[in-house]
Specification:
Helices cover about 30% and strands about 25% of the residues. With about 270 residues, it is an alpha/beta fold. β10 (about 250-260) and β11 (about 265-274) form a beta hairpin. α3 (about 95-110) packs across α4 (about 130-135). The longest helix has 15 residues, at about 95-110. It starts with 15 loop residues before the first strand and ends with a strand.
Length: about 270
């Protein structure tokens, strides 16, 4: 099945033009087992907002099950080693420490801190460095991941509550959160608006949604960068990210462009209700 990434734009995504074509994996891209499928994929860009949409017919259905963990980290031991290395990075070299500091600062501006028994739901938590650092800061962190081995890692190594479920299956009856966070997650899903809407239903009155996504500005340094790897169905512009939040009936409180210590081009957004 070809992928069908969408932002549910009013234009119906009818103003797309060719942006990049790949006939082989770029340097640094994880070599997933695609079987006999020929490697061919592309991006199209929107002439209005500058958003990039992935386009290909590759079957990536196994990507976020066992294949992703094995290919990306080398299994559970590799996850443990990578987690320890990232947590040990000094602040000046750590994307995650800067992320945590910014989230905590924004939360304080809204009257939310550890003393208020704050709760954060981190969607697609991966290795868990973000929820682990939020827990260190006194927050109750809950992490979502589809892979059972990743959930085990999040509980036993990262030390946070973890659930093997999708965001759409989290019941608001279990309690609202002060923050729902997507750290380099929304680019991996075909319909990120669905995730935004689900997140908006899980935040309390002073709560917020925090998003980090790859910034299409990276294209200025070439289309072989990690922002454009195979698992990224979307590459956002400031305009497309802001419009996506607004389509979920959220107000954009902060939208920032930054170059991470790792060299990644990142868009950072805080969105609130009302």
């Amino acid at each position: 099945m070809p992928i069908a990434p969408t932002l549910r734009c009013p234009c119906g995504e009818r103003v797309l033009q060719s942006a990049a074509v790949y006939d082989a994996p770029p340097d640094g891209e994880t070599r997933f087992n695609l079987g006999a499928q020929p490697y061919r994929r592309a991006y199209r860009s929107c002439a209005v907002c500058g958003h990039w949409f992935g386009q290909h017919e590759l079957d990536l259905s196994c990507l976020y099950d066992r294949e992703y963990v094995d290919a990306t980290y080398g299994g559970a031991d590799g996850m443990r080693r990578r987690f320890a290395a990232l947590m040990a990075l000094p602040h000046a070299r750590s994307d995650n420490r800067g992320r945590v500091a910014r989230v905590l600062a924004f939360a304080r501006e809204r009257g939310i801190d550890a003393a208020t028994r704050s709760r954060v739901l981190d969607v697609g938590a991966g290795l868990g460095v973000f929820p682990a650092a939020m827990a260190e800061a006194g927050w109750h962190a809950v992490a979502l991941e589809p892979d059972l081995r990743t959930v085990e890692h999040l509980g036993s190594v990262a030390g946070v509550e973890a659930m093997a479920t999708g965001l759409l299956h989290v019941d608001p009856a279990h309690g609202l959160f002060d923050a729902v966070t997507f750290n380099r997650v929304l680019e991996h899903v075909e319909d990120p608006l669905e995730s935004f809407v689900a997140a908006s239903r899980l935040i309390g009155p002073r709560g917020f949604v925090y998003v980090e996504v790859p910034d299409v500005a990276a294209a200025a340094e070439g289309q072989e960068r990690e922002e454009f790897f195979i698992e990224h169905h979307h590459v956002f512009s400031p305009a497309s990210l802001a419009m996506l939040a607004e389509r979920a009936a959220l107000s954009v409180a902060v939208l920032e462009r930054l170059r991470e210590p790792s060299g990644k081009f990142t868009l950072r957004l805080f969105a609130v209700t009302g």
